[in-house]
Amino acid sequence: DTANALDALSQEGLSEEPVQQEKEAAGSGGSGAWEAAAGERKQQQRRRKGHRKVVDIDNDDENENDENGGAGGYERQREHPFIVTEPGEVARGKKNGLDYLFHLYEQCREFLIQVQNIAKDRGEKCPTKVTNQVFRYAKKAGASYINKPKMRHYVHCYALHCLDEEASNALRRAFKERGENVGAWRQACYKPLVTIAARQGWDIDAIFNAHPRLAIWYVPTKLRQLCHAERNSAAASSSVSGGGDDLPF
Amino acid sequence: DTANALDALSQEGLSEEPVQQEKEAAGSGGSGAWEAAAGERKQQQRRRKGHRKVVDIDNDDENENDENGGAGGYERQREHPFIVTEPGEVARGKKNGLDYLFHLYEQCREFLIQVQNIAKDRGEKCPTKVTNQVFRYAKKAGASYINKPKMRHYVHCYALHCLDEEASNALRRAFKERGENVGAWRQACYKPLVTIAARQGWDIDAIFNAHPRLAIWYVPTKLRQLCHAERNSAAASSSVSGGGDDLPF
DNA sequence: AGAAGGACCAGTGGTCCGTA
DNA sequence: AGAAGGACCAGTGGTCCGTA
User: Which residues partner with A57 through β-bridges?
Assistant: First the structure.
């Protein structure tokens, strides 16, 4: 129902960055076995504490088939950054607008439904949330612009859009007017959600689950923490003003 | 409500087996660095395909503190095996009965409820199923006889007990009479569940979720597969006997 | 500086298989 | 042979941080 017309909202052309493999291939002067295995294996080193050394001993011919057909200087693409747009406004320049952001959540929902149908058909476990499996499926289906960190990052913004579209729209207009960046707008989305939670007994999980389009998203940790903190301080101040045991008003 | 009186159903005293650490300490003549690290690190070798070699390079003094205070020959305890008992029957000898088995599921439910209350209190994510976290909590609370492989192994038996206690009781009496072992009884529990699923549109997840005491358990993979296979062959035979497109009868 | 997302990591669901 | 459960492993939820 949120039609594919919205796809047009994404600006044509993507930002570019050199591809990882190419840089690795170009980065000459590696230091032996580990370097050679880096393309094949995951790098398990970064923040490792145990000072462990991993050595591959049958690395024979696994890395010889370069599937990308040699060093043709192609570039990895990265989505344009979001900017704060009003409802209905299309972002100009190398930017994406917030209607497009919210549209990505609808797309994920459609991918989830497809994954669910396949699972039901096969008699397999059926996910109720947007899981890693769904992100993998989306990628395989060609929606390479969908990824987990991005979707998780803005879930609460989408939640406000679902739960109080008027408030969400007003916030967008206000932040656009003030020339705020996306990060500031994103931060500002928390507060109205906490207010909504306050009105509904602080149960943010119940609020998500009661909304069909929101129920498929995990409640973001920070939103959960904010609701919890606010509930406690609200209870504390009410018990002070109430002058004794907590009363229901 | 399923009172702690049932705890008495577990035979006093447990089977014994020598403790792992002791055996490892006793097993002299290891072969160098990896052997020395085995107590500290997880053994990552078993079925490994990649022919990888893992070497620890700062193994300095991590393994020196033997917390068990030396080789006092204490024994690890293991629960008595289950035998097929009738409802109400207490197992004799070094055995446990099936009422006790089902009681363990009730205990897990109580541990889950405690974990849920703690989580709600702290404003953390609240589990709806018996997860690893719940098994850990049970162990910490002293219920060392509860463990994940055992509980998962018999979930479908408990499911039958919840969904059709009469049928479950009849099956127990029949298998006791015939002198069948627990494994045979366990296998036999699948079929009546598949029959129940057939009557309810084959949705075994919905059947579990509709029952408050069962909803907290993951549907066992094998039960899910049996329902799926049976649904498909039922659909095939009905479309044959129906002589064309599937009809609703 | 603000932002997108590859890649990591601790802890999960699932159950094998070494053990008695 | 039958059974209990430690311990493993692939893939998860969560998000950091190297990247541009």
Answer: none
Any residues with CB less than 8 A from the CB of B240 and at least 6 apart, and which? Answer: none
Task: Enumerate the β-bridge partners of residue B15.
Answer: B78
> What digits encode the pLDDT tens for the residues A54-84?
333 233 233 333 333 333 345 668 999 999 9
- What's the predicted TM-score (pTM) here? 0.78
Alpha carbons within 13 angstroms on the beta-carbon side of residue A161 total 21
CB neighbours of A37 closer than 8 A, spacing ≥ 6? A56, A59, A63
Distance CA A217, CA A112 (A): 11
Residue whose tokens read 């499996």: A133
Q: B55: which chain A residues are within 8 Å (Cβ-Cβ)?
A: 52-53, 55
Distance between CA atoms of B222 and B204, rounded to whole angstroms?
12
Q: Which residue is nearest to nucleotide D8 (CA to C1')?
A: B44
Residue pair B150/B186 in contact by the 8 Å Cβ criterion: no
- How far is the C-alpha of A208 from the C-alpha of A163, rounded, in Å? 9
Q: At which residue do the structure tokens 């119940």 appear?
A: A206
Tell me if A125 sits within 8 A of B224, measured CB to CB. yes
d(CA B111, CA B121): 15
| Alpha carbon A233 to chain centroid, angstroms | 30
Residue A202 has a CB neighbour count (10 Å cut-off) of 18
Q: Using CB atoms within 10 A of its CB, is residue B111 exposed (0-12), middle (13-18) or buried (19+)? A: buried
**Which two structure tokens, joined as six digits, stand for A101?**
């952001």
How far apart are the two ends of chain A, measured CA to CA in Å?
42
**Cβ atoms of residues B232 and B238 within 8 Å:** no
| Residues B36 and B91: beta-carbon distance below 8 Å | no
DSSP-H helix ranges across A97-154:
98-122, 132-140, 148-153
Residues of chain B with a CB closer than 8 angstroms to some CB in chain A: 50-58, 122-126, 205, 219, 224-225, 227-229, 231
Which of these ranges, A46-55, A142-151, A205-214, B183-192, has the smallest mean pLDDT? A46-55
Which residues are registered as beta bridge partners of A18? Answer: A75
Tokens of B205: 């997840």
CB contact under 8 A, A52 and B50: no
